[in-house]
Amino acid sequence: ARVRAGKSYSKSVKPPNRDPDTVVEQKTTENQAHIFRLSGDYNPPHVDPKVAKMFRFDAPILHGLCTFGHSARHVLEAYGGNDASRFKSIRVRFSRPVLTWTTLRTECGKTKYNYLTIRR
Prior knowledge:
With 120 residues, the protein is α+β, with helices and mostly antiparallel strands. It contains 3 helices and 3 strands, in the order E-H-H-H-E-E.
């Protein structure tokens, strides 16, 4: 069992209790975590399977920046016509790690306030 590192001050937003309006899937590549090291995050659990296991992960985990980038790209593709100027803001809360070499699935649903909620 994983133990939380501390108190979260993030606001949890419940997704609508229905099927998503849009689903976007994208497979990550085997070298995805290595590429994202260029962002300056050299934390070994992202690329070294032995270190990842020491942290109780089954395999190396993707950088949060990588997961966030894919999610933002999926929303932009589905709702913004791939036009970044249509983004006003995006806020995220990381709730669990994503293993490398997985297919990322972004489920989007509009709310009554014209917000999108995203499930991974």
